[in-house]
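INTERNAL AUDIT FORM
Audit reference: QA-55
Scope: verify that the stored structure record matches its stored sequence.
Auditor: D.O.
Record contents follow.
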Amino acid sequence: MIQILISTVFIIPVLMGWGKIMESFFGNGFGGISGKVLSGILGISLAWAVLSFFVPLNIYVEIPSVLLGLFYFFKSKLYRELYLFSKRDYGLAGIVSLIILLTGSYAPFILDHFGYYVPTVKWLTEYGLVKGISNLDLTLGQMSLWHIFQAGFSSFSDPFLRTNTVLLIIYSIYSIERKHWIHLCLLPVLFLFSPSPSPDLPVIIFSLIILNEIVIGSKNTTLLFAFSIFVFAVKPTMIWLPIFVFLHSVLILKSNVQKLLFGVAILLLFFAKNIWTFGYPIFPVAIGDMGVSWKPNPEVLKISSQYAILKTYDMQYSYEEIQRFSTADYIKNWLFLKGIKSKINILFILSLILFSILALVKKRKIFNLVCISILIKSVLVLIFSAQYRFFIDVFFVIFFMVFYGYFDKRKSIAVFSVFSILIISILSFPGIIQKYIPSFRVGGFMTGIKKEQFYKPATYEYRKFKSFKVGNLKFNVSKNYPYNFDTPLPAISTGYIFDDVKAGIFPQLIDKNNLGKGFIWKKMTSDEKQEGQKVINNIENTDK
């Protein structure tokens, strides 16, 4: 907790300084401490995204970035913003922040932390954006802007990767500054994302803030649309947000096209990043073929697509069984999966239906635009891969829109207190959720509370791996563990090794003397097939 607190106290002034820089170009953003921090997140993330094409986001990038932010923080005397808080606001912010720091100190338990988040940050800090890295490990082709942001602070400002915890504190400050207390009701559920640099947290928070700003009448179209595109670039399943902001800008504010150009520029940067790392404009969809030589092998993409379908049905059916489903079976079997995911899916559909009816009854423009936007997003998710993690943000949006005027300060603090106790109890004593909701698999990876985390956030170390060589690529594989969060680069997940060898291809270095030049896939020669099979045999024997 103490070390996360130190990181928070250090990072917030840096982001406020960067926010001041952004305001000099795009005008006053959301206002207050939180507004400057949010603008700073946008500005520094985009700056680091551009830099990551050319250099790794290591300490040599972090130091000048931090110094520049601090320079503008003190030059513009932004610390005066702190004096605008009342004693009661300070007290509330302090208590909420203390709870957030506690939840952020638990050990990570989201599996993507080990297979995607940490490996992505490691690649960004050691090499920057690597051309064709999806050929090495398809998951790494995402390279989310949020992980670029995390990587830039990971050398010394936030080495424990707890930026999400910092963001939660910023979100609580936003709620207190704006006196819009409904956000406090939503905070406890978001605690589950605080120990990991999950992009789910920022996109939920940013979308709620943008929604809040539009509801209260903000007309800064340039910043709102740019931020909505930034959210989409962090996680493309948030496509409803730029659709909503665009429709609001055009149909209600009657904004001109020029105010959308900054957002368009961010979108182009997002496409360029994806083409560089994945080979196509939007990960993981193989649409918009640019003809680049480093795009993934079609067979690997096919396997990935099939796996997404299996995940839609929680791995409870084989791919062959799903292919034999009728239209009615597709719907029925998805709604009535075994375990908690069935309840989530049913609740999702019911929420959409009820919200749509409410939108028709209320006949308010903003309400209707939000409804149309999330329905578009929901249809796309249901078509491509209807996993609950891709539509969880919809619950937050619907709750916000329905109960916006209901929760005052007193009610919100009461809800926050009750659910904070509940979430902290689950995190501290995970046996509760493991016993009563065994189908909620994430609960099985929670380790509970440890006294050491009050000083230093709980982390994992593994460092057990084996090294292999196929063709011109020397690589490492975690031993007896499917993920490579603690394995030296270049590391490949065992699942992708099996898929590649099965497809008769394998990743190779573009430049055998320079790992940073990137990867392509090549068909394996007979010798390389033997090498690949030896790797698989070694992995299988080790796992036994």
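Auditor finding: record pair retrieved intact. The mean pLDDT is 90.
Action required: none
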